[in-house]
Every structure is written in structure tokens, then in C-alpha cells.
Design goal:
The protein is mostly helical. The mean pLDDT is about 90.
Length: about 80
């Protein structure tokens, strides 16, 4: 339960540093590679946030450690 959350937080920090580094100067912002890296990091942050809450939205009836959700939260997690 805690390992995915720790790894997700580390991934968010790493992607945040990449975001900062790619938009730091105007010259870096103009390069296509840095623009693609910027967008990749943005979507990685979204994915890491979803990964951090892997077991949280799972229905309690599934008897999974850390599950605190219901059917609607499970479907919402599946959507994202």
C-alpha cells in the first residue's frame, strides 16, 4: 500500500524538476524536444497522482488493505 505512494511521490518530484528545467530559459522553451518533454512530464504527473491512490478508491468489500472507496470511486479511478 505504501510503496506505490512513495514511488509516485518520487516520480512527481522528478517530473516537476523536468518541468522546471525545460521552461527555465526562452531558448529551452523553443526547442521541440523540450516541448515534448514538458508535455510528457505533465502527463506523468497525472499518472503518478492516480498511481498514488491505487488502493484508496477500491471498494471496501474487496478486502484489500487500504481500500476505503465504493463502486463509484472505483469507476472514477478506472476512468482516469
Amino acid at each position: 500500500v505504501w510503496m506505490p505512494r512513495v514511488m509516485a511521490i518520487l516520480s512527481i518530484f522528478g517530473s516537476s524538476f523536468i518541468l522546471y528545467d525545460t521552461i527555465r530559459t526562452r531558448q529551452k522553451r523553443r526547442k521541440m524536444l523540450n516541448q515534448m518533454l514538458f508535455m510528457l512530464s505533465v502527463f506523468d504527473i497525472f499518472g503518478s497522482i492516480a498511481y498514488a491512490f491505487t488502493t484508496l478508491p477500491t471498494p471496501q468489500e474487496d478486502y484489500l488493505h487500504g481500500a476505503k472507496g465504493n463502486d463509484k470511486t472505483c469507476k472514477a479511478q478506472g476512468f482516469f
